[in-house]
Design brief:
This protein is α/β, with parallel strands linked by helices. It has helices at about 20-30, 50-60, 85-90, 120-130, 150-165, 180-185, 200, 205-210, 225-235, 255, 270-280, 290-300; strands at about 1-5, 10-15, 35-40, 70-75, 95-100, 135, 170, 190-195, 240-245, 310-315, 325, 330, 340-345. Zinc ion (ZN) binds near residues 13, 15, 39, 247 and 249.
Length: about 350
């Protein structure tokens, strides 16, 4: 029997939603992860420290009594965000990071930022106090091809922003391209990237070849195979600038399987099994702990978890439910499209 034990992982990009969906999905993350950076794109979004406090309380109230889990809260950056509110939320330990969504880039991002110069006072304050900015790195210009939106963002928005506020710590979230990987590797300081599980496992054919498959549609959208390979190389390299952010983003099936389906893939259940598979395929199981458990805490200035998780390789493929049933409706679980033998013990 092959097995591997790593410090309990954290998820550096997670959508928990609210209400019945929160209750339905939270136990899956809390079983395998000690902490997670919680995305603020609720309707309405988590904008102020008071919103973050209330959302954190709702998450902890939804947590089953037998599980331990620390939600690391984020604030949704708007053109009206108050730098003093952000700074005090960070100083008190309530909020870990601020999230920048370019307006219109993804699910519930319409209150995001249209004009970066309007949020400069917030970003300068964050640079001063060492608070990280998490970025959804895609331009929203309709004339830019959807598969190019990350690469264009890096060139036209991220690079100038880093030059303007060099002391700002930036997480380029859910990086999906070789351009993104190269850009992070070429940066001298203050830049890191999270990578999702699904972007290590699927390319855009999963969405479009042989029929249109809405459960593989997410944003940023999966790219061509060469990009997936670049992501796998970065994730399995052990490089401290790359770490896991699952971007597990549940939507009920009727909102995915329709004429204009939502973006988001639900991977909280089987992320660790899938990752062990990927790292084994790459001959890099010894770097799984760096990617899933060590690099993220180092970047966010937090201790590595004392608890551990053991993954066991079974002779037979491991199965998960195809769907989970929440109070809001069914949510389809990510199907990695190949047999996975790794199971969390
Ligand atoms: C996310 C969601 O559903 O909230 N969707 C997704 O495809 N990843 C939003 C996001 O992180 O872009
Ligand atoms: Zn996300």
């Amino acid at each position: 029997m092959v097995e591997i034990t790593i410090p309990k992982p954290d998820d550096w990009h997670l959508h928990l939603r609210d209400g019945a969906m929160l209750e339905g999905v939270l136990p899956f993350s809390a079983r395998h992860f000690a902490r997670a950076i919680i995305m603020p794109n609720l309707v309405p979004p988590v904008v102020t420290s008071a919103d973050a406090q209330a959302y954190r309380d709702r998450i902890l109230a939804a947590l089953p009594a037998d599980l331990e889990f620390t939600p690391l809260m984020t604030l949704y950056l708007t053109e009206g965000t108050d730098p003093a509110d952000v700074a005090s939320a960070h100083a008190s330990g309530l909020v870990t990071a601020v999230k920048l969504y370019p307006a219109g880039a993804t699910t519930n991002s319409h209150s995001g930022v249209r004009d970066l110069s309007k949020v400069m006072p917030v970003l300068e304050k964050m640079a001063e106090i060492g608070m990280p900015l998490c970025i959804h790195g895609e331009v929203t210009d309709p004339s830019v091809d959807i598969f190019d939106r990350e690469a264009v963002f890096i060139e036209t928005v991220l690079d100038p922003l880093r030059a303007r506020v060099p002391d700002l710590k930036i997480t380029l979230e859910h990086v999906t391209t070789s351009q993104g990987v190269d850009y992070v590797m070429g940066a001298d300081a203050n830049l890191a990237a999270s990578i999702t599980t699904h972007h290590l496992m699927i390319n855009r054919n999963a969405i479009l070849a042989g029929g249109i498959r809405p459960h593989y549609y997410c944003l940023p959208v999966a790219k061509r195979e060469s990009h997936r390979l670049a992501l796998r190389k970065a994730a399995t390299s052990g490089d401290a600038r790359f770490f896991l952010g699952t971007d597990s983003a549940p939507h009920v099936d009727p909102l995915k399987e329709c004429g204009c389906g939502c973006a988001g893939i639900f991977t909280a259940i089987n992320t660790l099994s899938c990752l062990a598979h990927v790292f084994e395929e790459e001959g890099a199981l010894d770097h799984l702990a760096a990617f899933a458990s060590r690099n993220g805490p180092a970047w966010y200035g937090l201790p590595v978890n004392d608890e551990t998780v053991t993954l066991v390789k079974r002779d037979q493929p491991v199965h998960w439910p195809d769907k989970i049933f929440t109070g809001d409706g069914p949510v389809t679980v990510f199907d990695p499209l190949l047999p996975i033998h790794w199971e969390v013990a």
